[in-house]
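Quarterly update from the structural biology core.
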Amino acid sequence: MIIRSLALKTELGLAATRATIIDRGDYVAITTPDDPGYYYGNLLMLPAPPQVGEVAFWVRRFAAEFPQPAIKHVTLWWDGVNGDVGAEAELVAAGFTLEPSALMTAVNVTAPPPPLPIIALSPDQVIDSLELGWAIADRHDEAYRVFLTRRVEWHARLVERGQAAFYGVYDQGELVASLGLVPLDKVARYQDVQTAVAYRKRGLASALVAAAARDVPADRYVIMTSSGDAERVYARAGFQIAERTVSACRRP
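Predicted structure, tokenized:
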């Protein structure tokens, strides 16, 4: 399948470090065997947004691609750069939640000096980001903690193999902000920019973004966000919105 969206292209690049990718020609299936509950690690990438009358077809295709009993969700993410939603009413009626996001890019990333020291994280220190992610999460159920645990273990493996760099800020021995940057050919994509609630609006996120870019050379830096507040933070660091994409997830 030919893909236009840089968001989807970089998502495939990330998936290639962990998941199984099958290009069926008219869609792409991504499977993450070590985490069947990962909504965006087990999904179909479509060539265009589902149109009226197509949603049931794609749900059936998903079921055929993912017969594992542990995969209880359905996630569809379609190619596009303008935020097209397709058959929105039909998707919502079928139980899906639409997830709009923005892809922002920058060539030069800059930010004021950080208020606290930034360090490159070792694989063991990347594991520390589990507690930070858990503290700021919207969910606090066991399934989500399992998801976060598997995710930080994947990130730690990427650092160990030299496929990614993660950076963090500690205060009195506690990790209070962190992110990752994964080089994908000439593009580098950020992962999991997170800051403890008490440390927000101090410039830590933008300083981390800039510090990572200084260490990891790339022709272009890419970051995904679904938050207007985050868009403003990244814009101050030199990012501009390049695409808007939409996905749909039917959670268990």
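The longest strand covers residues 174-184.
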